[in-house]
């Protein structure tokens, strides 16, 4: 596999790289976060940066954006040394990062976000009319279809990302880092974002594209750099790098994501039903009915707007439906329990465990330890006089660390210091701590690396083997491969059911509302 050349031909001349990291090394105490890493991004390209969680991507981004200085090596822009860290205006003129979690101020308008701390003024007073006029001109110039007076908190994820890109361009930056930009977008939104990236590339904007969705690398990028264990493993043209080789470079192992083979399982016709969802309706879903047997994994597939996430949240008590019922069977010989609407404690008591969609907002208390997070659902059962012994929490957390392979210094380590994959394992540990009969997983592998995906999916398989009913609501095909059945939702309703062994193109066509049999 050939490496991307140092120079590219632009207008018949050799072009310098937009940005270079040359032998960059960064240490935090005894930990080496980057070891002699070099990266070259050429003008007008979209260059992917991939690697497992903890590989060094975030550290490299912090060096490229001037948040940190390398201990060894250097950062260069257009062949010139990077400005001093204290000169933030100079950095903004060279590079900007659009993070997975938006940095726009939700209560301000688009125009205010575009010109925050640099509003046009007259005689010391903000000139609101001029600011809106300049914002409109900026948005029109870059063909971004967002109203300048819209409140950013009312915008969708896609529009907020475009506002952040426009803000970066307004500073003069022509190098944009996109950190997991599609993590919260559905199929149509992703394709629109990709079209905008391609259009901006033609206008001279260069992108560093960070994603765990490897298919996107092949759709939008021309070059890819792989980091593993704080080192650069390879840089290659995308068209010259087979998918299997890319995954092998990321993991150090041959092959793709290891998933359970649901197609080889025996049928569960005589097994009792553990979860019954009857005519469930809510804000974005209607008349959804299905059941899940003990030891069965059922997938809910569909675009972000299909209602799949809302149905899963309603089962777990995270969302209040307006009609229908969710019934959870008791242990052998016991009667089923109908869950009250939008009641998480009641769902926990009935035997429902959940890995929510957003681990940062719904799954973790980042300032607390692994022990505190992993045992959070057990406090009512373990507490005596409102107090749980720290030694008991630590012992249970240690068991979870061992069972799930969480990489951490110990049960008292704060979850804020863990990689995304290990944070998600802590969320899984919390969901399993109550020994649930029904396990609801919502986008369980979003934003985690390949090996963490395998570990999390293996935990779902183990839950199935233990006789739990498992619901997996996800848009990731790898998450759904271990399902006995996949129910496809489209515009709030279940439109099709696929048995294990489905073909990718057939499932994707159903998710997108495409009839492959139509002439």
From TrEMBL:
GO terms for molecular function: ATP binding; ATP hydrolysis activity. Gene3D superfamilies: P-loop containing nucleotide triphosphate hydrolases. Pfam families: ABC_tran. Keywords: ATP-binding, Cell inner membrane, Cell membrane, Membrane, Nucleotide-binding, Repeat, Sugar transport, Transport. Residues 19-254, 266-516 form the ABC transporter domain. It comes from the Bacteria. This is Sugar ABC transporter ATP-binding protein. It comes from Trinickia dinghuensis.
């Amino acid at each position: 596999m050939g490496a991307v050349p140092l120079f590219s031909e632009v207008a018949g001349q050799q072009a310098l790289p937009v940005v270079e990291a040359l032998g960059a090394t960064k240490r935090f105490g005894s930990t080496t976060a980057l070891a002699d890493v070099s990266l070259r991004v050429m003008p007008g390209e979209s260059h992917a940066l991939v690697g497992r969680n903890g590989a060094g991507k975030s550290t490299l981004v912090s060096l490229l954006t001037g948040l940190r200085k390398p201990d060894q090596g250097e950062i260069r822009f257009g062949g010139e040394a990077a400005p001093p860290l204290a000169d933030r205006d100079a950095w903004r003129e060279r590079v900007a990062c659009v993070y997975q979690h938006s940095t726009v101020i939700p209560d301000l308008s688009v125009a205010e976000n575009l010109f925050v701390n640099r509003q046009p003024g007259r005689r010391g007073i903000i000139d609101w009319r001029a600011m809106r006029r300049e914002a409109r001109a900026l948005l029109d110039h870059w063909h971004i279809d967002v109203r300048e007076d819209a409140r950013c908190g009312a915008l969708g994820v896609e529009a907020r990302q475009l506002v952040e890109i426009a803000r970066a361009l307004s500073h003069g930056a022509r190098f944009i880092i996109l950190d997991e930009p599609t993590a919260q977008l559905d199929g149509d939104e992703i394709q629109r974002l990709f079209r905008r990236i391609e259009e901006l590339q033609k206008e001279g904007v260069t992108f560093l594209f960070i994603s765990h969705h490897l298919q996107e690398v092949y759709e939008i990028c021309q070059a890819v750099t792989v980091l593993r264990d704080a080192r650069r493993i390879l840089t290659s043209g995308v068209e010259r790098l087979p998918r299997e080789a890319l995954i092998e470079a990321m993991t150090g192992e041959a092959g793709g994501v290891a998933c359970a083979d649901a197609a080889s399982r025996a049928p569960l016709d005589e097994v009792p039903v553990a979860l019954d969802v009857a005519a469930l309706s809510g804000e974005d879903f209607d008349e959804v009915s299905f059941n899940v047997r003990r030891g069965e994994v059922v997938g809910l597939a569909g675009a972000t707007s299909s209602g799949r996430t809302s149905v899963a949240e309603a089962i777990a008590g995270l969302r209040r439906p307006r009609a229908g019922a969710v019934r959870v069977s008791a242990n052998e010989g016991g009667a089923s329990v109908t869950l009250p609407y939008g009641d998480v404690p009641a769902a926990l008591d009935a035997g429902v465990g959940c890995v929510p969609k957003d681990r940062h907002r719904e799954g973790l208390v980042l300032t607390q330890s692994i022990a505190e997070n992993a045992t959070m659902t057990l406090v009512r059962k373990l507490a005596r006089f409102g107090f749980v012994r720290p030694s008991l929490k630590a012992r249970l957390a240690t068991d979870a660390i061992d069972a799930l392979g969480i990489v951490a210094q110990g049960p008292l380590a704060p979850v804020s210091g863990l990689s995304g994959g290990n944070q998600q394992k802590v969320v899984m540990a919390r969901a399993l701590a109550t020994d649930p009969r029904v396990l609801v997983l919502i986008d369980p592998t979003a934003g985690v690396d390949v090996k963490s995906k395998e570990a999390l999916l293996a935990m779902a398989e183990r839950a199935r083997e233990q006789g739990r009913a498992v619901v997996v609501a996800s848009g990731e095909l790898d998450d759904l491969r271990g399902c006995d059945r996949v129910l496809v939702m489209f515009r709030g309703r279940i439109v099709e059911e696929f048995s294990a062994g489905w073909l990718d193109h057939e499932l994707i066509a159903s998710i997108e509302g495409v009839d492959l049999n139509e002439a």
